[in-house]
Amino acid sequence: MDAPGTIILPAARRSGGKPFMEAIAARRSSRDFDSSRDLEMQTLSDLLWAAWGINRTKGRTAPSSHNRQEIELYVFIKSGVYRYDAVEHSLHLHIAADLRAATGTQPFVGQAPVEIALVSDTTKITGKTPQGIIESTYADTGFICENIYLFCASEGLATVARALVPKEELAARLSLPEGHIITLVQTVGYPAL
Question: Are 80 and 95 in contact (CB under 8 A)?
Answer without folding.
Answer: yes
